[in-house]
Design brief:
Helix content is 24%, strand content 24%. It is built from eight helices and 19 strands.
Length: 330
């Protein structure tokens, strides 16, 4: 265990300040994330150093399509989550059903450094919800940054602003899972709320590289008007934010059929009316999709069997349109 950050004592209880749930936790009780516990009037994090998943992944699997394309990144996850989505694709990991090993932050960074020769650029905190692994992620990201490694966060973005801003100071790129663009969906299906996630996305823009993913579920968050509002919101922050519209598959408590591929492609066209880069996910060929200049159509990033970055600096080689895509090599 490790004493948690972002809490205050309220009598014999503790008030957790990490996320918008604002849990007030009685003695020996845990927050809604199940990994932060009141022990003797002190809030402790129970998953510090607990690792349930560790793999060297293509950066595109995060998914991050505009951040060091073609590179690998050491991906690591623990257990716990501060949302409760009935369609969660990673529920066994969230519940801690897989074997755990213990790694302190320095040991994790040692592993990342040891895989640099294989093309690794750094560490991605992913798989489950890294925000409820906050203290470990913060320590690991600081150490990784100190040693010249890149840091990535794949998160639901359901976090209070102050801890989020502190964490962003150590992070190079984020992919935020925007579950939907309606408040009812968040309340009924995720036991959370939309507004804090919007605020987290807005706060990250300009501080680090940002991409957004939405898992499309037929009849739940797949309306054309909703996708138009979602893409308009992102475009208001930066129209170059990549949006990944991914296919839902039955998981956990939800057994309705998978999203039709044609629906995802249709909604991607709607999003492209506002955003310059929209990708489809969990479909055949998704990871090999190329990136094209939104102004002239020139291929800029080729993925798949013959990957390559065809940018001239940060510009299209044909029309000189400027983009913000860190290349796979400094």
């Amino acid at each position: 265990m490790q004493e948690a950050l972002y809490w205050e004592k309220v009598g014999g209880q503790v008030h957790c300040l990490l996320c918008p749930h604002d849990c007030t936790i009685p003695a020996q009780g845990s927050g809604r994330c199940q990994v932060r516990k009141n022990i003797g009037g002190v809030l402790y994090t129970l998953n510090y150093g607990e690792v349930s998943g560790l793999a060297l992944d293509p950066i595109e699997k995060k998914p991050l399509y505009h951040f060091y394309p073609g590179s690998l990144i050491l991906s690591v996850g623990s257990r716990g989550c501060n949302l409760n989505c009935g369609f969660c694709q990673n529920w066994p990991s969230v519940q801690g059903e897989y074997p755990m090993e213990t790694l302190n932050p320095s040991e994790l960074v040692d592993l990342a450094e040891a895989t640099k020769k294989r093309g690794n650029i750094g560490i991605a905190f992913t798989y489950t919800e890294p925000l409820v692994w906050y203290e470990y992620v913060l320590a690991g990201a600081k150490e990784a940054r100190r040693r010249g490694l890149k840091t990535v966060l794949v998160t639901n973005g359901f976090v209070s602003l102050q801890p989020w801003l502190e964490l962003l100071d150590t992070i190079d790129a984020v992919n935020i899972d925007l579950k939907a663009f309606n408040t009812d969906f968040y309340r009924d299906n995720c036991k959370g709320s939309l507004e804090p996630v919007q605020e987290a996305i807005a706060a990250a823009v300009g501080k680090c590289h940002v991409e957004v993913t939405t898992l499309l579920i037929p009849g739940e968050n797949s309306g054309k008007e909703e996708i138009d509002r979602l893409s308009t919101f992102l475009a208001g922050l930066n129209p170059q934010i990549p949006l990944h519209l991914s296919r839902y598959h039955p998981a956990r408590q939800w057994q309705q059929p998978a999203t039709p591929p044609e629906l995802i492609r249709d909604l991607a066209e709607i999003a492209r009316q506002e955003l310059e880069f929209v990708y489809t996910g969990n479909l055949p060929g998704s990871y090999s999709a190329g990136t094209y200049c939104p102004q002239c159509g020139q291929l800029l990033i080729q993925r798949g069997t013959s990957p390559g970055v065809l940018l001239s600096g940060n510009s299209c080689p044909r029309c000189k349109y400027r983009l913000s895509i860190p290349a796979c090599k400094e």
